């Protein structure tokens, strides 16, 4: 019996779609990456990616090997990412600032063949690699010998003819407790969502200049501040330093950004910043929000302060990116918007039967960006991936017009006095109070073992009596059983590797 290889009439490698194609179109001289020091053209990034691909191959990387990229945002990150894809290898994107124990666990879990990092982050990666039976080495991009070797490496490289269903990038699920699960995503997924959401909903063009709050190792930013931008022939603003509201105001003005990829935490910081009223966001045509629910109150403050369209949406690593989104000119505050064309969603009960419009149920979604599986988590894969559908663990309601309201993660819902409570509802209420900068609500058992909501609040100014004032504030606006029984004031809220509030740590105190 002869087994025919997968059909490859058209190359499926996204490096060809997002990068090589710009040169084939004759747009190699157009700006691709903007930094404070210089502008990089598509031709320069293409040459850099080819150099990285050749260097990785020379170091022993083969097609389908995992390559861990742990770099700050900048041209080298993009070169290493596309270079990995161009040799048919698989990108594993991680935070370069991870603790040593987490790095060792990730190397053991992913079996990455090589690690690409920088001098500032290299030590714990080198230490972890020494204890690995698989990792062949750590490439330090800003070491003098590496810079010399890279410059001497060929800029010619034929892109590996990956099949659309080959793994391209491993993402990590955004749970709030426990170690993250690796989600195996294919070239097909990235191409699909780029067309359906990046082009179809956000309307990216070759005039786009994008800037992101999340760094590129977040799938949300990889899409909205790199793949969508490159597919359209636009330019990405990249910078290595931690993001602050002040830095955003300055870089949006300097680079004349048109799209801001944002998250609720930074939206809160921007509208509360002393420079908010004078912050120059005039070049922005829209901003997006994802990662956590966007309270109506925060949306209203953003619009009143900046007047820029703000599109809330929902995506998951398992579907790579956003598949429910508000639309420019058709935002319904307090909702996630409607399903992105090419995807289908439904709200279901525990048995998987679709509930009536307006009722709360579990989110089921299908479309061309569904992941293959969780790596080394067969039982969880079978629970989450059911035929064409992915069951996310999020609770939603879909109204008659198709707008989706988010009701939180199922594992975060609280049952108080026999009634369900969504922490996000209480958090949104607390944010309406002028003294509250950030808030998170979790459930803790009282002395009788009964579940009660408690709040952790970052206050703009602590004063005597504020705790009781906030409790009363919530009781006047929500059903009495929803008010937090205890409010603790903290300097900051703990966050996960993906920047979400770490509710597990809050529950543990």
Major sheet description = 9 strands, mixed
On the 0 to 100 scale, the average pLDDT is 92
Secondary-structure arrangement, i.e. CATH architecture of the largest domain: 3-Layer(aba) Sandwich
Estimated structural class: alpha/beta
- Which strand-content bin applies to the residues? 15-25%
Which regions contain 5 or more consecutive residues with pLDDT less than 50? 1-9
Query: How helix-rich are the residues, as a percent range?
Result: 25-40%
Any idea what the shape is?
globular
Work out the radius of gyration. Answer: 23 Å
Say which CATH homologous superfamily of the largest domain is assigned: ANL, N-terminal domain
Enumerate the strands of the largest sheet in spatial order, edge to edge or round the barrel.
Answer: 2-1-10-9-11-12-13-14-15
What is the CATH class of the largest domain?
Alpha Beta
By DSSP, the count of extended strands is 26
Q: How would you describe this structure to a colleague?
A:
There is one protein chain. The chain is of the alpha/beta class and 509 residues long. It folds into three domains: 14-162, ANL, N-terminal domain (Rossmann fold), CATH 3.40.50.12780; 209-409, 3-Layer(aba) Sandwich (Rossmann fold), CATH 3.40.50; 413-508, GMP Synthetase, Chain A, domain 3 (2-Layer Sandwich). The protein contains 15 helices and 26 strands. Strands 2-1-10-9-11-12-13-14-15 form a nine-stranded mixed β-sheet, sandwiched between helices. The longest helix has 17 residues, at 42-58. It is globular and about 70 Å long.
């Amino acid at each position: 019996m002869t087994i025919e290889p997968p059909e490859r009439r058209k190359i499926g490698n996204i490096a060809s779609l997002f990068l090589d194609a710009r040169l084939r179109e004759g747009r190699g001289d157009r700006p691709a990456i903007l930094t404070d020091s210089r502008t990089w053209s598509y031709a320069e990034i293409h040459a850099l990616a080819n150099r990285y691909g050749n260097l990785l191959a020379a170091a022993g990387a083969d097609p389908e090997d995992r390559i861990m990229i742990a770099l700050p945002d900048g041209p080298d990150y993009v070169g290493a990412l596309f270079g990995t894809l161009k040799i048919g290898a698989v990108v594993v994107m991680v935070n370069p600032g991870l603790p040593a124990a987490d790095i060792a666990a990730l190397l053991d879990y992913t079996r990455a063949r090589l690690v690409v990092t920088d001098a500032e982050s290299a030590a714990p990666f080198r230490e972890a690699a020494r204890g690995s039976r698989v990792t062949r080495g750590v490439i330090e991009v800003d070491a003098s010998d590496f810079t010399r070797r890279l410059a001497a490496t060929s800029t010619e490289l034929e892109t590996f003819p990956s099949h659309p269903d080959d793994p391209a990038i491993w993402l990590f699920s955004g749970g709030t407790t426990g170690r993250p699960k690796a989600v195996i995503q294919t070239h097909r997924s990235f191409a699909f969502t780029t067309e359906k959401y990046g082009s179809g909903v956000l309307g990216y063009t070759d005039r786009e200049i994008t800037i992101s709050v999340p760094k590129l190792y977040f799938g949300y930013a990889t899409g909205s501040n790199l793949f969508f931008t490159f597919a359209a022939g636009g330019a990405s603003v990249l910078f290595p330093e931690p993001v602050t509201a002040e830095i955003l105001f300055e870089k949006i003005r300097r680079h004349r950004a048109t799209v801001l990829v944002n998250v609720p935490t930074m939206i809160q910081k921007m509208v509360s910043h002393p420079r908010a009223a004078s912050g120059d966001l005039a070049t922005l045509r829209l901003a997006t929000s994802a990662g956590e629910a966007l309270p109506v109150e925060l949306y209203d403050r953003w619009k009143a302060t900046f007047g820029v369209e703000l599109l809330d949406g929902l995506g998951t690593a398992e579907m790579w990116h956003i598949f429910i989104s508000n639309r420019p000119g058709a935002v319904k505050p307090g909702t996630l918007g409607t399903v992105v064309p090419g995807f289908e969603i439904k709200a279901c009960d525990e048995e998987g039967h679709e509930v009536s419009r307006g009722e709360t149920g579990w989110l089921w979604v299908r479309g061309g960006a569904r992941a293959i599986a969780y790596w080394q988590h067969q039982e969880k894969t079978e629970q989450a991936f059911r035929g064409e559908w992915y069951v996310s663990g999020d609770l939603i309601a879909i109204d008659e017009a198709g707008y989706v309201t988010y009701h939180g993660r199922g594992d975060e819902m609280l049952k108080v006095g026999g009634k369900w409570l969504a922490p996000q509802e209480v958090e949104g209420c607390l944010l309406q109070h002028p003294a509250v900068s950030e808030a998170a609500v979790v459930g803790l058992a009282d002395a009788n073992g009964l579940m009660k909501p408690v709040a952790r609040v970052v206050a703009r100014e602590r004063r005597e009596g504020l705790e009781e004032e906030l409790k009363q504030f919530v009781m006047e606006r929500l059903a009495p059983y929803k008010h937090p029984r205890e409010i603790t004031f903290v300097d900051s809220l703990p966050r996960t590797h993906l920047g979400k509030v770490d509710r597990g740590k809050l529950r543990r105190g």
